[in-house]
Amino acid sequence: MKNILLSALMLFALSSFSQAAGSQPVMKITDIKGVTHQITGTEEGFKIKGLEGKIVFLEFFGHKCPPCLASIPHLIKLQKKYKDKLAIVSIEVQGMSETQLKQFVKEKGMNYIIVSNSKAGNFTNYISQRAQWTGSIPFMVALDKKGNVQFVQAGMLPEASLEELIRQLDAIK
After folding, report:
1. What is the CATH number of the domain that holds 32?
2. Contact 157/72 with Cβ under 8 angstroms?
3. Is the pTM here over 0.90, yes or no?
4. Smallest Cα–Cα separation from 68: which of 91, 100, 37, 97?
5. pLDDT means per 10 residues in the chain (173 residues)?
6. Which domain holds residue 81?
7. How far is CA 16 from CA 24, 53, 122, 129, 151, in A?
8. How far apart are CA 114 and CA 90, in angstroms?
9. Which residue ranges does the record assign to the Thioredoxin domain (predicted)?
């Protein structure tokens, strides 16, 4: 029963995400290295300029969230292992300042794109509306290489599940 409910919720989230919001919004986020990433909303997901052709894991996390902290080493390993086909973009949503976040990233050895919520512009709200995200963390949206949303998950996924997700998304043509 739990699996059926989870599947139904995921289908609802995906169908909600895929409903066109009229025109394709263009948003910008700036990571802690000062790089600005342009994001264009599409009917089936979104495209991040410069990450075309890659699987993208968009993760919302918090620096005080135990499951979020536990997932960081997994994400570091996956980014290292799949650097040519995977891009991880994480947005910290528990209010860390830019300076604090830079120090946190350095201490944790995070090797993927990190953005403070204050530098995410209206992208966080966009995801909230399109993916029906209510603020629970960690929260992940996984895109295939075409920028289409293929998976939405509230809660931590084990490393093996993330590896399987990468394998499945890599197989999509």
Report:
1. 3.40.30.10
2. no
3. no
4. 91
5. 39 45 82 97 95 97 97 98 97 96 98 97 92 93 97 95 97 87
6. 2-171
7. 16, 24, 18, 9, 12
8. 5
9. 18-173
Which structure tokens are listed for 163?
Answer: 């590896």
Structure tokens belonging to residue 50: 């410069």
Report yes or no: 58 and 143 within 8 Å, Cβ to Cβ.
Answer: yes
The first and second tokens of residue 137, run together, are 């963390």
Number of domains in the chain: 1
* b/e code 25-36 from CB counts within 10 Å (16+ = b): eebebbbbeeee
How far apart CA 67 and CA 92 sit, in angstroms, is 13
Alpha carbon distance 67, 82 (integer Å): 22
**Tell me, what DSSP letter sits at residue 10?**
H
Helices 66-81/159-171 angle, 10° precision: 50
> What is the rounded CA–CA span in Å between residue 40 and residue 10?
23
* Token reading at 159: 């490393």
